[in-house]
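As a representative case, the lines below give one protein's residues and fold tokens.
***
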Amino acid sequence: MPVELIYDLDCPNVSCARAALLKAFGQAGIPPAWTEWDRRSADSPAHVQGYGSPTILVDGRDVAGITPGDGASSCRLYRSGSGAFAGAPDVAQIARALLGSHSPLGPPHLMPGT
């Protein structure tokens, strides 16, 4: 289960995304491990350049269900479970994605009969 954190170096929300990611791994009971990509780095793979900052991918899927855009630099906004907007995904959203990728049936949005 590859987990990736995609960001721009000047993004003010990267530290919040890292903290939420670490807490989500704890809630999911999974040892924390992820790869970080600076979108503008020549070493970053092409697939990360279409996402805004910060973005968290689990098994190549955005935890908020967004598809990559045109690669222009942009900040992300996430809607929390309460409906408020934040600059990083909330812990519950990330934990659901982590747990879904560990399920033998796959991520929740791909489960048969749903």
About this structure: The CA atoms of residues 50 and 71 lie 4 Å apart. The beta strands are 3-7, 35-38, 55-58, 61-62, 78-79, 85-86. Residues 3-110 form one domain. Residues 103-114 have pLDDT under 50 and may be disordered.
